Amino acid sequence: MRIKQITDRHRRDFTAVYECEHCGATDTSSGYDDDNFHRNVIPAMKCKACGKTAPDSYCPRGTLYPPDEVDDAGEYYNFGPAGCGIEESRNLTEEEAWLIIETLRSVME
Predict the structure, then answer these.
(1) Are the C-beta atoms of residues 12 and 70 closer than 8 Å to each other?
(2) Which residue from 8, 10, 76, 98 lies 20 to 30 Å from 33 (Cα-Cα)?
(3) For the whole model, what pTM was predicted?
(4) How many CA atoms lie within 13 A of 36 on its CB side?
(5) How many other CB atoms sit within 10 Å of the CB of residue 68?
(6) Rounded CA gap, 34 and 11, in Å?
């Protein structure tokens, strides 16, 4: 299974729509945004439709927060892990993050 869409988030806790890479079936469930969950728990999830787990080529997402921080102010870390078809994995600058936040706010209005 892989995260198709995160539908709700409160700090590290989230609700997401997970999608099977094999049959395309989806399932909505909770999750926790840390490295262990992305690297170990998600790839081990069995699809309820076909019973398969993630393929060997599964590439975990980056976390929203750094490993040692629980954020109160909407910080922004690790948008995509390196080595997964994304050329660069880096923390956003404050200016880049605010640009994204303002763009999202304007789209949601």
Answers:
(1) yes
(2) 98
(3) 0.63
(4) 4
(5) 5
(6) 11
